[in-house]
Amino acid sequence: MDILQLQRKAAELRADVLTMITNAGSGHPGGSLSMMEIIVALFYRQMKIDPENPSAEGRDRFVLSKGHAAPALYAVLADKGFIDKREIENFRQLGSCLQGHPDKKKTPGIDASTGSLGQGVAIAGGMALGAKRSGNDCQIYTVVGDGELQEGLVWEAAMAAVHYKLDNLTVIVDNNGLQIDGRNDEVMSLGSIPEKYRAFGFKVFEIDGHDFEQILGALAAVVFNKPKCIVAHTVKGKGVSFMEDKVEWHGKSPSSEQLQQALKELIRDTDK
Amino acid sequence: MTQTNDSVKKATRTAYGEALVGLSEKNEKIVVLDADLSHATMTYDFSKKYGDRFFNMGIAEANMICMAAGLSAMGYIPFVSTFAIFGAGRAYEQIRNSVAYPHTNVKIALTHSGVTIGEDGGSHASIEDIALMRVIPGMTIICPSDALQTRKAIQAAAEFSGPCYIRLARMASPILKEMPFEIGRANILAEGEDVVIIACGLMVHIALKARELLRQKNIHSAVVDMHTIKPVDKVMIRRLAERFSKIVTLEEHSIIGGLGDAVRDELPENIKIKKLGVTDVFGQSGKPEHLLQHYRLDAVSVMQDIMEAMFQNF
Q1: Which domains occur in chain A, in start order?
Q2: pLDDT tens digit string along A127-144?
Q3: What ipTM was estimated for this complex?
Q4: What is the CATH T-level fold of the domain B9-175, as seen in this structure?
Q5: What is this structure's pTM?
Q6: Which of residues 79-138 of B touch A (CB under 8 A)?
Q7: CB neighbours (10 Å) of residue B53?
Q8: Chain B residues close to A57, C-beta within 8 Å
């Protein structure tokens, strides 16, 4: 897929995300939209994966540490054919394979159950350690929220990733600046995220998290003997005018009128 | 018939360390993680022999548990060790969400459980870990009663796929007579007709000693080693309920949520049960044998408490 196709794909999947959340009547639109270009770049260009064989040993692994952004992951998995596209209508419903937060037991294509913040980055570290130990040359990618960096476990995991020289691990920070209770720095100041990761010993890239060329460039960069951190500056609720950078869209469902308006904006984007 | 030989003592944590080294020769999938306590949890020998399969995670238990989950996702069988309080306690939610919720193949072998941790005191004495692990769906819980059984339990844990908690002790304890070991299948160690003592871990040898003391008072007790607390041996418990109107449980753990409750949950309502254990109080510093006396978990106290309970027709 070229850049234009990737952009169209992101717009199309944003529409799926919002439809899914509106159907369910609950979910997390803001953080699902902010990481859309990142997850599209990973699943449509960067990662070695096969929907026909979702548990192939040599596949790259993806861990959605910010598990509440599951709708973005589900939209991708449905579009790629890991799951039946119709299943997204059952998101968050009783008996569905699409739980409120990712569940590896229920959903093909999901490598780690996440949702309790901070744990995904550590699980990804364990996968990277296991891959290195066994000579599996797969890559491990994890997306972590910026608010999630307030969890001490994230920094325990960072310490271990550097100690064990996990250069097969890429931690991508979806740095949209907002969390449920407000702006990150009003809730609990994060300081400089790139400097923190640099101080732990990561190779750090800072990019515009909605610019495919920058995302793909940072993902493709090869790093030896240390893990990689991509700090992606993003806009929460990206792609929908009334949601962008609005903290109240962290975890609520649009009304059907709001959905229609959002879809109009997104269709315009897919026609570009 | 003497059931214990006090001249040969070994801590279950020591047997754990030996079992890891022995098993890992044959099973290359076994990896071991520790949180800066390898000399105490006894994973040290493994780390020397299999350095490339040993990962010291530093003093960071939450990360250790989650990285073990990640290692299991890559096909390894991680054994994770620290003290019970820091594993089952501090990293509880990581065990719940990253290990048990996805039903990973992670083995959590925690040492220094119970009040017999000794001089380190109440901050370190875990009396809640069985209760914490018991409420997690799909968690297997084994509390081996001696060094021989520990070895078999570690092998059994490595051979099945799923999360497993193995509760180990710091204090050296007698080697009991060798019995078959199967997860979920309790062993009757001694027969008797007046009362049955169902115990686990270190308390099994205490139960056997208390049995001798009771016999001198003309009370004949049976002793059952309930090494697997989850899934508990329901068949055995129901069979015991048919034979005995009085059942005593004995554990080095809070009487809330541990072995006693696991047994009681399977008993018909008309069967009387007396739960002996730590009575909703914290541990404290002291020599292990003094602590056992203080918390009424030594053989004499156990004998007295059983006598008293029987006199009161519990």
Answers
A1: 3-271 (3.40.50.970)
A2: 999 999 999 999 999 999
A3: 0.95
A4: Rossmann fold (3.40.50)
A5: 0.96
A6: 93-94, 97-98, 101-103
A7: 19
A8: 75
